[in-house]
Amino acid sequence: MKECLVVGKVGAGKTLFVLNFAAYLGLARIKINVEYPSGQVLYRQYSIEAARRQLVGNNPHTTKALQSIILEIPVTKGVRRCIISDSSGLIDHIHKDAGIRQAIAQTLGAIRRADLILHVVDTSQIGVSDAPSALGEVDYQVAQFAQMRGGYLILANKIDLPNTNLGLQKLHLELPGHKITPISAMTGHGFKEVRAFVRRHL
Ligand SMILES: Nc1nc2c(ncn2[C@@H]2O[C@H](COP(=O)(O)OP(=O)(O)OP(=O)(O)O)[C@@H](O)[C@H]2O)c(=O)[nH]1
Ligand SMILES: [Mg+2]
């Protein structure tokens, strides 16, 4: 089964996107395989609401493991299955906590292995200095790495927030030559385009 990895800076909205995208594709319950950087693997089940309450958060590094869900994407004849994996958020500096450094290393390893990469960017914070989710060096590095391969899409998230037009324009200037889809993980804006992209690459 192909793996679609969701990456991006801390607080960009990766977890909310994965959960609401799974709901958009018809999942009422979320069955998550949680793979910690230590190698420990846990299996958890949630309703979508409980998953949102427990797994989405305002503090950086809310997610500290690879959290994978099996999705079924409708295709012409039936459905095709793929794994979508939420990951620990990236940062531009080296974190002082060894556990977080391991979680980030796990994300970097997953980037190398993934068949598809959805790179979530917080459009509301582009150019905001010092915001943890602001576009940063690590975003340019992910984009550069992904350029060498197919199956890469940038999701300009939080487009529901005011004044994100300017952020979107800046993003196109900062990461030229990449396909960028504006989305809102909160409202579901743009999910149809993301589904079409994933379907094309399965
Ligand atoms: N308005 C708005 N808020 C969003 C959107 N996506 C995420 N958020 C909010 O942004 C915050 C961070 O969301 P998460 O999904 O936990 O972000 P994350 O990228 O998984 O963060 P880490 O796990 O810490 O790396 C939460 O308060 C979300 O409710 C969006 O599309 N619109
Ligand atoms: Mg998260």
Report the oligomer. single chain
**Sheet bearing the most strands, described?**
8 strands, mixed
* Rg over CA atoms: 16 Å
Classified by CATH, the class is: Alpha Beta
Low-confidence stretches: none
Helix count from the secondary structure assignment: 6
Structural class: alpha/beta
Present as ligands are:
guanosine-5'-triphosphate, magnesium ion
Give me the count of strands: 8
**Helix and strand run:** EHEEHEEHEHEHEH
What count of structural domains? 1
- Give the strand order, joined by hyphens, for the main sheet: 3-2-4-5-1-6-7-8
Mean pLDDT across the residues is 95
- Helical proportion? 25-40%
Briefly say what this structure is.
With 202 residues, the protein is an alpha/beta fold. It has one domain: Rossmann fold.
Describe this structure as you would to a colleague.
There is one protein chain. The chain has helices at 14-24, 48-55, 98-113, 137-147, 164-174, 191-200, and strands at residues 2-8, 29-35, 41-47, 66-74, 79-86, 116-122, 152-157, 180-182. It contains six helices and eight strands, in the order E-H-E-E-H-E-E-H-E-H-E-H-E-H. Helices cover 33% and strands 27% of the residues. Helix 1 (14-24) runs antiparallel to helix 2 (48-55). An eight-stranded mixed beta sheet has the order 3-2-4-5-1-6-7-8, with helices on both faces. With 202 residues, it is of the alpha/beta class. The protein has one domain (2-200): Rossmann fold, CATH 3.40.50. The model has no long low-confidence stretch (mean pLDDT 95). Bound molecules: guanosine-5'-triphosphate (GTP) and magnesium ion. Guanosine-5'-triphosphate binds next to helix 1. Magnesium ion (MG) is lined by residues 14-15, 62-63, 86.
